[in-house]
Design brief:
4-stranded antiparallel sheet, alpha/beta, globular, 366 residues, 2 domains
């Protein structure tokens, strides 16, 4: 998603608005969020002193309409607990949680059922398909629960089956499908109810690398075609960087950094994040908006023009082909240039992390 689209999304009401959310497991869990001294303890110290575990610790964020919001972290970081709190599959201990401005924590059982059946659909790591039902009937199951008629729900299921590329496999049983095909069925089942937001809880972690890549492609394609809001949980950094418009990186129940993939790779918040992204190929994440420098002399009138959203890896190809710098242009104006040395600095991790971010002045006209 572009910066402009994010700005537009931020100007509207968020799909999810989460503030100071806690989920504490253990005796008298509700006392932990309200006690600043206990809240400041490390995970190990908190457990030793109280017998409680803070799986989600004072987390705040918004999910904007149409964005892919990724929550990532290592095992035990709290990411799966967090996504389950969003629809109260797990009850939060404290904090506020809204969907489209409606208080999720105040919902009664009827409103929660409506939320889970119509507004937010979950795709789990374990497919959860019914082995005695055909693929088509598995996809239509949620619609059946909603009370939709057989003819209508089967037509909808066939439409979703085609959308995920399994249109000739509707009469098969789940056991006759590969792991990747089964996960596609799970995705089609979630899409069938036409939810406002899709919640993915590490859906591809059990798949082989090549199949996992195919499923990531499928998510990218569906998002490009539909623009549906997605919250995606993963422990895989490359998956997070590939899918996410923004990423919340968790550790010990808290969010240590929230930002775009480029912000997290180029400007890590602390040593933990810096170590996390150490092996990321920076040129595949950093864009020319961050890598550029001001034009000098006649640089503003020579060289190929690339948009500021171009990744450095693509600019390297252009510079290597022409042997000269490239201009970074937007709306007919030159914002800056990128030369051999700037590209090498990004690849080597020697760039300042701020690049030539424009500050209201244009270097020239294209």
């Amino acid at each position: 998603m572009s910066t402009t689209e994010h700005a537009q999304g931020a100007a509207t009401e968020p799909v999810f608005a989460v503030r100071n959310l806690w989920k504490v497991f253990g005796p008298k869990a509700e006392r932990i969020p309200g006690d600043a001294r206990l809240g400041e303890l490390s995970a190990a110290e908190l457990t030793a002193r109280t017998g409680c575990t803070a799986a989600v610790r004072d987390v705040s964020f918004d999910v904007h309409p149409g964005e892919v919001f990724v929550v990532m972290g290592l095992s035990g970081s709290g990411k799966s607990t967090l996504v389950r709190c969003l629809t109260r599959l797990i009850e939060p201990t404290s904090g506020t949680l809204h969907i489209d401005g409606e208080d999720v924590r105040a919902m009664d059982k009827s409103r929660l059922r409506e939320l889970r059946r119509h507004r937010a659909a979950m795709v789990f790591q374990h497919f959860g398909l019914l082995p005695h039902r055909t693929v088509l009937d598995n996809i239509a199951y949620g619609l059946e629960i909603q009370g939709m008629g057989k003819v209508e729900r089967r037509a909808r299921a066939e439409e979703m089956l085609a959308k995920v590329g399994l249109d000739r496999l509707g009469d098969r049983r789940p056991g006759q499908l590969s792991g990747g095909q089964q996960q596609r069925v799970g995705l089609a089942r979630a899409l069938a109810t036409d939810p406002e937001v899709l919640l993915f809880d590490e859906p591809f972690s059990a798949l082989d690398p090549l199949i996992r890549r195919d499923m990531q492609d499928e998510v990218v394609r569906l998002h490009r075609e539909e623009g549906r809001t997605m919250v995606f949980i993963t422990h895989d950094l490359s998956e997070a960087l590939r899918l996410g418009d923004r990423i919340a990186l968790m550790r010990d129940g808290g969010v240590v950094q929230l930002g775009t993939p480029e912000e997290i790779v180029a400007a890590p918040a602390d040593d933990y994040v810096r170590d996390f992204v150490r092996d990321v190929p920076r040129e595949q994440v950093i864009t020319l908006r961050r890598a550029m420098r001001p034009a000098v002399g006649d640089e503003a009138i020579t060289g190929a023009v690339l948009p500021p959203s171009t990744r450095v890896v693509d600019a390297i190809e252009a510079v290597a082909r022409t042997g000269e710098h490239v201009r970074v242009g937007e709306d007919g104006n030159v914002l800056g240039v990128v030369c051999h040395s700037r590209l090498l600095s990004v690849v080597a991790g020697l760039d300042s992390g701020h690049g030539g971010e424009p500050r209201g002045e244009k270097a020239g006209a294209i």
